[in-house]
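Deliverable D4.2, example record:
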Amino acid sequence: QDITKSKQAEETLKEQVLLQKQLSQIAETVPGMICSFQLEKEGRTSMPYTSPALTDIYGLSAAALAQDATPLFARFHQDDLAWVQQTIEESARTMEPWHAEYRYHHPQKGERWIEGHSRPQEQPDGSILWHGFIQDITEKKHAEQAQIQLEAQLRQAQKMDSIGRLAGGIADDFNNLLTVIQMYADLMYAKMDKEDPLRPKLVQIRRASERASDLTRQLLAFSRKQIMTTAVINLNE
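Output generated by the structure prediction step:
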């Protein structure tokens, strides 16, 4: 008998097995997880295929999600769950690629940041099947947050530097005015009779100008134009 078709089928099967092995090897070496996600017409979700990285990323077994993805969604951050489900529904409606970043509570690692990319395909039974890639981006998110904090600190330092420059300029000009006030107060005080009733008022002017000079020294210290000296003080006093 002619067994050509049987031999062709055997060769096709061998090629498929070899391809499956190659894909499995690739799935084991990629830094994230390769997976399939299915949304049926009645709303039930499942993950028919997941690569070995599933346990590391989600802390769940493939068997737990093969028929029902509910255990996966149960560990989503409560502030992200509704939004992620909305992105899935939107991708199913428009047949556009799905992408989302969300927080997930890993059984062993605690809260993690997860990023997913996948492309939907409509199936003959009316369900939608996504094939995609999932990865843990927690370290990336922490680095981004640290960068944001550093940028905020830099902006604050720049603000303080600007304020310091402004304070230094004001202090210099104000100190010049105080010098004039103190000089004329001293001259008037020296020329007045000791019994002059205005003489005590000049003393008050002098004291007020000295207090103002102390304030300018503080402004100069704030602007780093003057060396600050530390001293032990008694808070009770």
